[in-house]
Predict the structure of 3-oxoacyl-ACP synthase.
Amino acid sequence: MKMEVYINSIGSVSVQKTFDDSGFLEEVVDYEGTSVKAVDPNYKDYIPPAAARRMAKGLKMSAVSSQNAMKEADLKNVDAIIVGTGLGCLGESEKFVRDLLDNDEQYLTPTRFIQSSHNTVAGSIALDMGCKGYNFTYVHSNISFESSLWDAKLQLENNEAENILVGAVDELVEHHVTTHQFIDHIKKEPVSREQVLRSGTKGIVFGEGSHFFVLSNQKQDTTYSKLFAMGIYNTLRKEEVSGTILGFLDTNGLTLEDLDGVILGNNGDVDFDTIYHDLANGIFQTIPQFVYKHLSGEYDTASGFGFWMANKIFKTGKVPEVIRWNDIKVSQPKRLLLYNQYRGKNHSLVVLEKC
C-alpha cells in the first residue's frame, strides 16, 4: 500500500523577502534590469561569520532556507537530503579559474575548488546536521527540482524513509549571465518587474534563489499540502502540450473542473511564452491562473519558488493580487496544478492538495 506524501514545512531565500516566513508577498521587491539578485537575510543569524565569509552564495542561501524548513518541521535530522540545481556553485568555479590565471597557477587555496561541485550544497547541509543517510543531487536543467521531488516521492510512498529534506538552489553567476545574454537567452535591455511578463522581447530576466521543503509520509500540525501527482516530459511539440496535460489529469483521476487554480511558469520570453498563452486562452481559460517568475526571475530551479508559493496559498488561504494572471477569483483553493517548461523543453506538472 502506497503512503501519502506531505509537505510539512518550507523555507525560501529569493529575490523577494521570503526568508521571513511570517508574511506572504505583502511587500513586493521591485527591480529593473536583465538579472536580479536575491534579498539577503542576516546570515549571521544562521551561520558563524568566519564560516560565512568562505561560503558561496548558493551555500549561504541554502543554509538559511534549509534551517528554516527544519525548524518549522521541528526536526534535528532527516532520513535523506535531495537537492536539485542547474548550475550548483558555478560561481566558485569561475573564481577558482580566475585565481588560477591571475596568480600564474601558484599560491592557490583549495576552498573555492572544493566548494565548486554541484553536490556541495547537499553535502554541506548533511555535515552541519550530521545526516549520514541518502544524499543525492540532481542536475537536470530546469527539471532539477522536480527530479528531486520525484525521488523523494517514490521513497516516501514506499516507506523507505519518513522525513526527507528536498531543496532547489541556483545562484547568479556573472560569466553565465554574460554568455546567455550574448546568445539572446537573457534580455538585452533592462526591464521592470511590472513589465517583464508583457515585455514582448526575447530572453528572460535571470534570478537566483534557494527553496527547501521537508517532505514526509506522516502528517503533522505544520503540514501545508499533499503531493498528489506529478509528471515530467522532456520533449513535446507545441500542439501536444494541451493533450498531454489533459491526459496527465485523466491518468490521475482528475479533470480540469477539479482544479482551483493553475500556476504557470511564464518568464517573459516572447518566443516561448506562447505555450503558456495558448493554454491560458485554451484549456485553462475558465480556471484561475497565477504567475510567479516576474517575482523570482528565471533560473533552472525557479519552479521551487512556484512550489513555495503554492504552499503559502494553501496555508494562508490568500491569493496576492501580484500573482493573478486572469480575472477569475478564487478563495481558499484546495487543489492547484503547477506547469513549467523552459525554451519549449522539460515540461513538468505537479498537483498539490491542501491538507
